[in-house]
Amino acid sequence: MTGLSRRQQTIQVNILNDNNEPCGLPVTLVGRECWTLRKLLDAGERGVSSLDHIGPRLSHYVMKLRRAGITIETVPTLHGGDFPGVHGVYVLRSRLSVLEDNTRAAA
User: Fold this and answer.
1) Cβ proximity of 92 and 5 under 8 Å
2) 12 pLDDT band (50/70/90 cuts)?
3) Could you tell me the residue ranges of all domains in the chain?
4) Within the chain, what is the greatest distance between any pair of CA atoms?
């Protein structure tokens, strides 16, 4: 993927309140933040983990989404294997209305 096509990936959402009304202005995300939000939207309650997406700095992108006002829960999850332990699974908790999304077209 070239730098140009990565920059072109954008998603714009409204964060919704309990009455499904927008809270403030729309949020536009590009690049890896856009990619992360798309993964969270697609995963639903299953969530997203760095074990599923090895390579990208998932926790950093989740932090940036949180700073944009999007609520994401970190669910501690046990795992086995050669190095058993606990890892975080990120689950989108904000209700969002997707206004624009060109992530599918740019893939």
Assistant:
1) no
2) very high
3) 3-106
4) 47
- List Cα–Cα distances, 10 to 6, 26, 34, 50, 84, in angstroms: 9, 13, 6, 22, 36
Neighbours of 62 (CB within 10 A): 22
Q: What is the 3-state secondary structure (H, E, C) of the chain?
A: CCHHHHHHCEEEEEEECCCCCECCCCEEEEHHHHHHHHHHHHHHHHCEECCCCCCCCHHHHHHHHHHCCCCEEEEEEEECCCCCEEEEEEEECCEEEEEEECHHHHC
| CA-closest candidate to residue 15, choices 83, 105, 101, 93 | 93
For residue range 19-28, list pLDDT tens digits in order: 999 999 999 9
First-to-final CA distance of the chain? 9
pTM of the model: 0.85
